[in-house]
Each structure stands twice: as structure tokens, then as C-alpha cells.
Specification:
The chain has a single domain, classed as Amino acid/polyamine transporter I, CATH 1.20.1740.10. The chain is built from 15 helices and no strands.
């Protein structure tokens, strides 16, 4: 069994990747209404869900999700849940890969077609997602530990930057008085959705004691959440964000390291973010294949390669239709559905725990 730090790495990975690319386009669309209040509600909601989820999973140490549900939930219902999570996990990875390929093409490799970049990343990540779960966690540890110092540097640059407009921050804070909306709560909840990865990796992770680190995690989550929301506003303002589709990359382009051998922080940030972003897609797709395996639909041999071929073909077929607006709308729909399925899955595990206790 691996130490609990790998679970925290999964939480961090999901937050830091979605913070940069996925959710800003959705969250900032409601910056004049419900965004800030919804983010705080999402933090509280997911905090409670994490504590409850971890208490439940502590009763099933070292068991896969199929073993947890065995004998408590009908097999057809299990397969339906696992297949839905397969679609959601693979869809999250695919949408993000398409979106990040567009960013790489725009900022790093404008002379290389986005289709070629997508194809290279697609083949690499599909086959990388076939490796063992423990190996995925080991790779995740390396990627996260390498990336954390750069996030700390970015936050310090923001705090020490004299070009920050504090009037922008105060103006943004005044909109906290608006009521939250479900769409914004779902987007905010996905920032902290890494805890659901335990469904896949529970066999390899030790149990956590949710109440002991909860205050620390909640405080860290609040600080990261405030940084996520206010740093771009401090540089660009509420109006400046409206016309920018890549808010965080424009923000990091405003940061400077005058005494470093690369002055523009954007160059460093893009290269570091590339590794952690590909790691996120790899975890998503590895999780999706594991859900297929739990449903006995991915047993190996010819069946495995049939699924791999289908996923490669589906990804290539969908990419031409995924422009910037389609990516945003698709991901917004996925987030709205994902929160509901997470609640359903936690309720199913609670039912399994109750059935086990009754026996």
C-alpha cells in the first residue's frame, strides 16, 4: 500500500490543471454575478463530500470499487455506473487534450499544425494510460514535485508585483453578494474533484484520517481558490478578462523575472504546465480504462486492443468539430453532469457500507 501523499498529489493535480485551463473560461463568464460566491460554496460542498467519502472508503481498505459494490448493488447497475464514469473520465481527458493542443500551437509551436500535435499526444497518452496503476502514481509524484515550486514562485511574483491594481481586486470582491448558481458551483467543485480518483486507486492507497488534515486542506484549498480567482483580475481587471480566452497564460505573460536567464515567466510556465497537463490526461484515461475493467469490458487480449482502437478513432473523429466555443460548451455540460454522478456514486458507496454493516 502506498502512502497517503499520493492521494494528496491526485487532489493537487486536478486542482492545478483545471485552475489553469478548464474552469477559468466558465467561472469568469459569471464574474459580475455568481462566480465568487459559487466558488466558496463549491469549496464548502466538496470539503464535506471529501470528509464523508473518506469515512466511507476507510471501511473498504485495499478493495476495488467492484469489490466494494459486490453483493450490495445489482451487477447491471454497477456496470451502468462504471460505464458512465468511463465516458466522463475519457471525455474530460479528451476535451482537455484538444484545448491544450490549441494552446501549445498558439504559444509554443505555431509552425506545427495543431492536428499533428494532437496526434502525437494522443498516441503517447493512450498507450501510457495502459500501464499499471502504481506506475501512474509514481509518475504523478515526479510531475507534481517538479511543478509545485513554480506555482509558489508565481504566487510570490503576484504578491510582490507593484503593477497589481488593487482596485480591480476590491471591485471583484464586491460581487460576492450575489446568489450562487449551479453551473458555477459545478465548475468550482471540479477543481477539487481529485478525491474521486480513489475509486480507481483505492487498492494501492492507505486509508486517510479525513478530520485530521481537513483544516489544513480546507485552508490550502481556500488560499489556492482565492489565488486562482484574483490573480488574473489583479493584472487584467474584470473587463480585460472578458476578451481573453487564455486568461492564465496572458497573466503569466505579464510576470517578469528580471534577474533570471529567461525573463518572461510565461516561457517557463508553459513548459512546466505541459508536463503536468499531459499527466492529468494520462490519469483521466487510465481511470476510464480501469472503470471498463471493473465492468469486465476490458479483460485484455483482443478486447483490449479493440477498445484502444475505438478510443483512438473516436478521438480523431471528434477533434475537427471541437473549436474553442464547442470545447467550452462541452466541458460546461460535462461538469454539470459530473457533480450529479459524484453524488450518486457516494450515495451508492454509503449504501454498500450500510449493507456490509448490517451483515
Amino acid at each position: 500500500m502506498l502512502q497517503i501523499r499520493y492521494y494528496y498529489f491526485l487532489l493537487y493535480l486536478n486542482f492545478i490543471v483545471c485552475m489553469i485551463e478548464f474552469t477559468p473560461k466558465l467561472i469568469y463568464s459569471g464574474r459580475y454575478t455568481s462566480s465568487l460566491c459559487s466558488l466558496l460554496v463549491a469549496l464548502l460542498l466538496t470539503g464535506l463530500m471529501i470528509v464523508f467519502f473518506e469515512k466511507l472508503m476507510s471501511r473498504f481498505s485495499g478493495q476495488s470499487i467492484a469489490q466494494i459494490m459486490s453483493g450490495s448493488i445489482a451487477r447491471l447497475v454497477q456496470k451502468s455506473l462504471f460505464f458512465c464514469y468511463f465516458v466522463l473520465s475519457y471525455g474530460s481527458g479528451l476535451i482537455f487534450l484538444i484545448s491544450y493542443t490549441q494552446i501549445i500551437h498558439k504559444f509554443i509551436c505555431p509552425d506545427i499544425s495543431s492536428g499533428l500535435l494532437f496526434g502525437v499526444f494522443l498516441v503517447l497518452l493512450v498507450f501510457a494510460s495502459l500501464i499499471e496503476s502504481r506506475s501512474v502514481l509514481y509518475m504523478l509524484e515526479i510531475a507534481v514535485l517538479f511543478q509545485i515550486p513554480f506555482i509558489i514562485i508565481m504566487i510570490l511574483l503576484f504578491l510582490l508585483d507593484s503593477n497589481i491594481h488593487f482596485d480591480f481586486l476590491l471591485e471583484a470582491a464586491t460581487y460576492i453578494r450575489h446568489w450562487p448558481s449551479y453551473e458555477m458551483i459545478a465548475a468550482g467543485a471540479f477543481l477539487f474533484n481529485g478525491y474521486m480518483s480513489r475509486l480507481v486507486f483505492n487498492e494501492h492507497l492507505v486509508n486517510s484520517k479525513p478530520m485530521k488534515p481537513f483544516i489544513i486542506l480546507f485552508t490550502a484549498g481556500l488560499l489556492l481558490l482565492l489565488s486562482y480567482y484574483f490573480i488574473p483580475i489583479g493584472y487584467l481587471g474584470l473587463k480585460g478578462i472578458d476578451s481573453d480566452m487564455d486568461v492564465w497564460f496572458t497573466t503569466t505573460n505579464s510576470m517578469r523575472l528580471p534577474y533570471f536567464f529567461i525573463e518572461r515567466f510565461l516561457v517557463i510556465f508553459l513548459m512546466v504546465q505541459l508536463g503536468i497537463s499531459l499527466m492529468f490526461v494520462m490519469v483521466c484515461w487510465h481511470s476510464s480504462l480501469q472503470f471498463l475493467r471493473q465492468a469486465n469490458l476490458f479483460k485484455g487480449g483482443k478486447q483490449k486492443w479493440i477498445w484502444v482502437s475505438l478510443l483512438l478513432a473516436a478521438s480523431c473523429a471528434l477533434r475537427p468539430y471541437m473549436d474553442v466555443s464547442t470545447v467550452r460548451n462541452s466541458f460546461g455540460w460535462l461538469l454539470n453532469v459530473k457533480l450529479i454522478f459524484d453524488i450518486v456514486m457516494i450515495a451508492a458507496i454509503a449504501w454498500c457500507a450500510r449493507k456490509r454493516k448490517a451483515l
